[in-house]
UniProtKB/TrEMBL annotation:
Pfam families to which the protein is assigned, alphabetical: GGDEF, Response_reg
Domain Response regulatory residues, every copy: 4-120, 158-273
Keyword Phosphoprotein: yes
EC nos: 2.7.7.65
InterPro entries: CheY-like_superfamily, Diguanylate_Cyclase, GGDEF_dom, Nucleotide_cyclase, Rev_trsase/Diguanyl_cyclase, Sig_transdc_resp-reg_receiver
Source species of the chain: Zavarzinia compransoris
Protein name, per record: diguanylate cyclase
Amino acid sequence: MTAKVLVVDDVPVIRKILEAKLVAEFFEVIVAGSGQEAIEKAHAEQPDIVLLDVMMPDINGFEVCRRLKADPLTSHIPVVMITGLDQPSDRVAGLEAGADDFLSKPTNDVALFARVRNLVRLKTMSDELRLREVAGLSLGLGATADPVRDAAALQHAAILLVEEDAAVIEVVRQTLGRQLHLTVATNDAAARQAVQDRDWDLAIISLALPGQEGLRLCAYLRSSERLRQMPVLVLNRAGDDKTLLRAFDLGVNDYVARPIEKAELEARVKSQIRRKSYQDRLRQTMQMTVQLALVDPLTGLYNRRYLDSHMTAHDRAGEGRDAGTLAVMMLDIDHFKSINDRFGHAAGDAVLRQFAHRIRMNVRGIDLAARYGGEEFIIILPQTSADEARMIAERLVRVTANEPFQIGDGRELSVTVSIGVAVRALGEAAEQAVGRADAALYRSKAEGRDRVTVAP
């Protein structure tokens, strides 16, 4: 996977060496020689990842990282801090500044390329969600960064540790157990049962489990549609680059080398949980945006766009099969214009909402109800005969007429509905069945309303 990499270092020789290494791996490289230049180029170039030196003359790397992460235009860009400082406190300071990873000079090429490719992969996965968030924000959905929400995510995070070494388990408990909810599984079977029983905010998996169980578990999590979004941090023996590379190829998010440095483990765990909270918010915004695109906001039923797509899909699925088991029901509220004229549009909206609720309460889970337009509604009923469709339609006529509608200020209004029903004939498109149901609806209107007509 290629990407655009911003290399930031005040020493020209180091910039050239990193640039040459990355170009040889087919990355596009841009460079900056100071903290201020790095911030400006991050805004202008929108790189996929930033490799950032800590020790610079104008603005140190920690401050550059904080500024990039605080800016909505650059906060999504992964930052790897590269420095000659090798104390655990320095790594923790970088992670707490918002860095996604921390490498010491001289850089290990295996670790460098693994980190870059992994972080670019994760960024690519979230970029589409970010685009959806932009659309959602334009519709009033989504939210900006919320420290209170992020703190709550950390406080309530559920972490699964998969490790058999009692000493390592105790170190992780001492590090995380005071603040986070930690559960331990000592083997692959127990871990697989745990991930089926509940959802987790993070899995910490030892790569030292016998028989490569750790790698197999990573592969299992990434192959599951339900589990593949769960962050995975692995515990790896220092110097075992081969196993670590295989883990990154399987899609793990991060690693901590053994023996474990407690402060680094805590910082990396919190970084993963914050990222998951951010991506969960992006997905929630995307789901709300999709819902707005497909659901009628007044009634909560599907809209015409979704209905058309659904019928097209139904036609494709029914090719070569018996298509006569699909029933279509067209519904129209009687004299609806007079309701708006006499009582106002607010009363008309109240009638539409309550009528939609009665539809939902009186159709099956497999049926699809949509607002067709104005006061017209449509219900698609799969695996339904003409007699069954008539029975459901007549029930809707009764529940509409028998209970008055509330239109505000304590006022009640009696409302009736006319319905036309058609069953799709063999070889007939769903849209043609809709047309016949619509014709049957007009016959119900012509014959006095408040009734059901089934198309021949």
